[in-house]
Amino acid sequence: MKVKVSSLKHHPKNKDIYELSSIDQLIESIKDVGLLQPLIIDTKNQVISGNRRLKSIRILKWEEVDVIQRKVNKEDEEKLLIHYNKQRIKKYKELLNEYFTLVSIHQKGQGRRTDLTSVKSDIGSSRDLVAKMMGVSSSQLQRLIFIHKHHPDHIELLDKGIFTVNQSYLQIQRELKEKKSRKNKTSIPSSLENLSSWRCYQKSSSNMNELNEGEVQTIFTSPPYWNKRRYSEEEGLGNEKTSEEFVVNLSEHLIDCKRVLNDRGSFFLNLGDTFYNGNLQNIPHRVILKLQQQGWILRNTIIWSKTNPKPSASKSNLTPSYEFIFHLTKSKEYDYNPTLTKLSSESKPSLPPRHRSVNGEYSNSISPYLPNIRGKNMGDYWNEDIVRTSVANQKLNIMGEHPAPFPEEIITLPILQTSKEFELVLDPFMGSGTTGRVCDKLGRRFVGYDLKKY
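and the corresponding structure tokens:
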């Protein structure tokens, strides 16, 4: 039957679940082919199915429209709204609205039930029934609930296409695992008999007066990156208004590293870049130029290639997939062993199948961290064949943590190449102590500085 468009109303519960989006495209479609289906309304002339179409034909100034009128019980209104939108392409936010609406209905009808909101529901749970009513897979729904529970701000990123559901889900899982790991490793490792082998100072590393001149053999650190998140106001690094200020501040902050490093020691600096107003700032090399002016010798610029870099939010440039690790020394005469073979069995993780021979034995050509280079110097491009790392603890800026903490594998090579057992390794921006954990495994003494207490 036909009714006057002016007599129709949007169903009041529709706005709680759905957005009236993509109206311009729908208007063009209606102009071309008309309404392919009538609107479905209740006895109060409230639209159950076709709220976007109602808005479109109002803009087109239709006077009448075909409708199907149904008598709807009050308790069935929300379920019918969701049922009639089953085939619609929906935002992830709308899918979650559907889920929570249906959960609420089930809770009212069956008493409060925890299995509907639990991420770990069994396959036969009510979540599967709700997923079927929504027209989505139960596994996808489970992941969306997980994402909403732990990082609801990711939902907007999903809708913008910055993340896929799987990328967000895996990223959050890694975040939770690392937080658990940090919680379990906040104390000095019990495996060290001498507590002085593992020292931590909760202070700025701009003045490391606790260390003697030339006491440190190797420095490996990743300082705050510029304009990635709000760091401690006391520290200031990373919070500067311009990248120029950051370059000056960081290079001056690192002056004391030159004093505490011995003449045969090495300094490894991991530093990432930042886009500002669409312009990549080239910060890492600008910092290195400042350090060279202080007398540092740049021995290598190592390319750390990541296997799963953070997806770029921009559609107009490539996703940054690598960072620099700069190897600096005080002189050209320094301790360095480029032809190491392999790690001890205690620190060697299991290898993927492609690294095994047909009889199941480990291949001599590649070890978990160190390739068998058979006398040749290894290259300055480090990918997964050199260090098997997929940046498992990489963070997004929105998570409020360091934007790019490094995994243990990336630190192991430099420490083994430039230091011996019981020699002292320094991380002036130690964060959660990843460098210290590697030193513990490799038998090196460690000292770290950080303003934040872990």
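(Above: one complete record from the training split.) The mean pLDDT is 76.
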